[in-house]
Amino acid sequence: MMGELSGFLLALGITAAGIPVLARFAPGWRLVAQAGPRMQHQGSIPTIGGLAMGIAFLAAYAITGLSFRSADLSPLLALTGEALLTHLGQLMSPELFTLGRWAVPLSIFALVGVMNAMNMADGLDGLAGALALAACISFGAAAGFARHGPEFTVICITAGATLAFLWFNARLPWRQQAAVFMGDTGSLLLGLLLGWFAVRLSMSERAAVAPITAVWILALPIADTVTLLVRRSLRGRNPFHADRHHMHHILIAFGLSSARTTALLFWLALALGIGALIGERLGVPQYAMFYVYMACLVGWGCASEILCRRLHLGGS
Questions:
Q1: DSSP string of 108-175?
Q2: Rounded Cα–Cα distance for residues 274 and 276 (Å)
Q3: Contacting residues for 78 by C-beta, under 8 A, at least 6 apart
Q4: What would the pLDDT profile of 56-67 be if each residue is shown by its tens digit?
Q5: Exposure winner among 36, 96, 108, 253, fewest CB in 10 A?
């Protein structure tokens, strides 16, 4: 337990100390976001949050000694070895849904998909970090109960770096906008780590979660991304063309503040993740969880399209 706590505190402290230092160099490195039509903030905001989290993650990972353990393959090295999707669990029936020769391409697709989902979620102060933290809590609970020590430590390190970043990025009573942004570096890093947690914990010899449970832990960013891409395509638009149809845009259009929107989505993401873990432990069939998620996905896609039109959100 000391290794997990040390990793969490190290990542927390290094990120918190590193952000103010890196922010001073951000203008010279041209790592700043200027206010504009798609950037709802005032002035120039340093985009060094992801860099700070990355440095903190690597430093904490090395200091905790994970990279030098000989008793187990370094968990990060397993990203290119053991952490591959070989099956999707009992996805549609009690039979195991194996992938065969599709294991490698679908593993890459899954990781890239989660990375893109986190990148698309980074559209509101504190949101991407909050969703990542919620996922870390759920994945951490699964890894802890299953006694996946190395994975649990990596999750704790990620959570520590993310929590420290949120202190500078979330809107707080005494700060009306983010002091720093994570930038693409941060959202892609968090997406890669979350995707790795999902694959590693569900594909290990003693799986901590079923694949569909991992999907529920990442339910919100996945649902928002998938429904947006489909809806844009059905309207004949470039699916990667930005608009204001995200989940958080809809909530803000209903009158919620940015801070309350971020808080609501954090608690919803956490509830879905913990609920899925409880459902799995209670023996809810994996295929039932899959069909429920697909029904929710279709329902949200239809509802969000109707809401965006009625609310006259931009990009329709």
A1: HHHHHHHHHHHHHH-SSTTHHHHHHHHHHHHHHHHHHHTT-HHHHHHHHHHHHHHHHHHHHHS-BTTB
A2: 5
A3: 200
A4: 999 999 888 765
A5: 36
- Beta strands at 39-46 and 32-36: parallel, antiparallel or unpaired: antiparallel
* pTM of the predicted protein model: 0.91
**How far is it, in rounded angstroms, from Cα 72 to Cα 57?**
20
Tell me how far CA of residue 14 lies from CA of 52, 177, 186, 191, 309, in angstroms: 8, 23, 15, 20, 45
Q: Are the CB atoms for 108 and 190 separated by under 8 Å?
A: no
Phi-psi region of 246 (alpha: psi -120 to 50; beta: other; left: phi over 0): beta
- Are the beta carbons of 219 and 265 closer than 8 angstroms? no
As beta bridge partners, residue 36 has 39
The pair phi, psi for residue 32, each rounded to 5°, is -135, 150
**CA 87, 89, 95, 99: dihedral to nearest 10 degrees?**
-20
pLDDT 10s digits, 266-315: 999 999 999 999 999 999 999 999 999 999 999 999 999 999 999 888 65
pLDDT digits (tens, 9 = 90+) for 68-124: 554 454 555 544 445 578 888 888 888 888 888 888 888 889 999 999 999 999 989
For tokens 């009690």, the residue is 94
- List the end-to-end C-alpha distance of the chain, in Å, as a whole number: 50
| Cα 150 to Cα 76, 164, 201, 276, distances in angstroms | 9, 22, 11, 23
Show the tokens assigned to 252: 């803000």
Which position has the token pair 């699916």? 239
Q: In DSSP terms, which residues pair with 34 in a beta bridge? A: 44
